[in-house]
Amino acid sequence: MIEVWKKASSANPKDFKYSAREPDLTGMLTYYLHQLGADGRILGFWNAETQMPRKRGIGRLSRTRKDLSYQSNLSGGRLDLTFEFKKITTSNLGAYRGDGGMKRFVDGDYAIGKPLAFMVGISRPGDMAPIKHLRRSLMNKATQRVLRMVRDGSGRYLVEPSEAVPGFCQFDTEHNRPRGKAPAHGTITLGHIFLECPSS
């Protein structure tokens, strides 16, 4: 996914301009994943804007829309990975961390029962400041409480470099989930990936 973003965005900067809406960016990425990713190395399939019905009581359903997912039945088990994309600036970190971002994997309905999922921050060309500010904000005790963050074995709330998916995610965070949404061990790990829009 990261490789296709870099290749497709550099070759087609108008398709990946920062001013585009997030659903348009994820839709365009999925288009190029199907165009450029069909080289035999990907053994599953990508979906964008998938909607999953969820039971909400007698006669009631709601839909949960996922930005991007990857699914495969190979390797002896079902692999189902969810990716949530957010444009990130120093002034909108709440969107990345909040109900439409990380909290979807904490007390929301994304990746229910899964041990691993991904947040993907999309930044303006050359703008690394939001990632630094995000890192700092995740070390705030109030933020850690809201996101039910969990320390790793070394006492870290933010594991950098990533141990979940080394070389691809920049850092990891781990979060307690409510009963019924958590995997058997009770927590979900979020791998944080950052992509840069191309210069116009």
Could you characterize the architecture of this molecule?
This protein is of the alpha/beta class. It has one domain (2-50, 61-196). The chain has helices at 2-11, 22-36, 93-97, 129-137, 141-146, and strands at residues 45-55, 61-72, 79-87, 116-123, 149-150, 171-176, 187-196. Strands 1-2-3-4-7-6-5 form a seven-stranded mixed beta sheet. A hairpin with a 5-residue loop joins β1 and β2. The mean pLDDT is 87.
The termini sit apart by 21 Å
- The structure class reads alpha/beta
* Spatial order of strands in the largest sheet: 1-2-3-4-7-6-5
Largest sheet: 7 strands, mixed
Number of strands: 7
What is the beta-strand fraction? 25-35%
Shape by Cα distribution = globular
Count of separate structural domains: 1
Sequence stretches where pLDDT stays below 50 over 5 or more residues: none
Average pLDDT confidence is 87
Total helices: the number is 5
Mind sketching the topology for me?
Blueprint: H1 2-11, H2 22-36, E1 45-55, E2 61-72, E3 79-87, H3 93-97, E4 116-123, H4 129-137, H5 141-146, E5 149-150, E6 171-176, E7 187-196
Parallel strand pairs: 3-4, 4-7
Antiparallel strand pairs: 1-2, 2-3, 5-6, 6-7
